[in-house]
Amino acid sequence: MSTGVLIAVIVIVAAVVLVAAALTLRARGAGGGRSLKRRFGPEYDRAVARHDGDVKAAERDLARRVEKHGGLREQPLEPARREEYEARWTALQEHFVDAPREAVAEADRLLAEVAGARGYPDGGQYEEQLEALSVHHAGRVEGYRHMHRVARAPLAADGEGPGTEELREALVEARELFTELIAPAPQDSGRHRADRAEKDGREQVAAPRSTHRTHQPWGLTRGHAKGS
Q1: Label partner for 88 (CA 20 to 30 A): which of 96, 107, 130, 176?
Q2: Which residue, among 72, 67, 68, 62, has the nearest Cα to 37 in the 3D structure?
Q3: How far is CA 126 from its chain centroid?
Q4: For the chain, which residues make up each domain, given as ranges?
Q5: For residue range 55-103, what is the model confidence (pLDDT) as tens digits?
């Protein structure tokens, strides 16, 4: 085989190898994108919009989040602490009727506290906490983002800020993440139900059954919101 033919063969083989490598990388990239889209859902679309439609940049951002926070293991909540958080959320919902802005600000602080208790970055590092939450609760994190933005929106010169309806919507959206964060782990569900039943039984013995209900479920409807 002449030198010229040998060189031509080497060049052809090298070209084939390069093409195969490029196709492999492209396939892996497409698979990674699909995986990220499945994992992040609406958060994926938001990342793409945040990067002005640059899909590759958005995927690099999301992949970085997974690499940094994917190994995070949520810490369990003791039943007593879970009930404390539930009671505080119920109280601020009731407070919303008279002071919507203050109630939303309190809910924002409470959600950050609960996330911290579950092992996420401290609420003082909001962006870091939000990123970590987006990896594990991608379908609910936008509600937290919305509430945080509304809670910190400055008042206008005329003293006006977000309206009651927007405050209500933000609180309702954020409640979904709150509910997920305080939910007992699967292995704790049975024990939590048993503890709850035992507590309810003690309360029924300690207090006579009321003949009428004084507390109605709170749904944050337009009729409940003062000034809406």
Answers
A1: 130
A2: 62
A3: 12
A4: 11-69, 80-184
A5: 999 999 999 999 999 999 999 999 999 999 999 999 999 999 999 999 9
How would you write the chain as a 3-class SS string? CCHHHHHHHHHHHHHHHHHHHHHHHHHHHHHHHHHHHHHHCHHHHHHHHHCCCCHHHHHHHHHHHHHHHCCCCCCCCCHHHHHHHHHHHHHHHHHHCCCHHHHHHHHHHHHHHHHHHCCCCCCCCHHHHHHHHHHHCCCCHHHHHHHHHHHCCCCCCCCCCCCHHHHHHHHHHHHHHHHHHHCCCHHHHHHHHHHHHHHHHHHHHHCCCCCCCCCCCCCCCCCCCCCC
Q: What single letter denotes the amino acid at residue 166? A: E
Report d(CA 97, CA 90) in Å as an integer: 12
Helix axes 79-96, 164-182, angle to 10 degrees: 170
pTM, two decimals, is 0.68
Torsion of CA 35, 37, 43, 46, to 10 degrees: 130
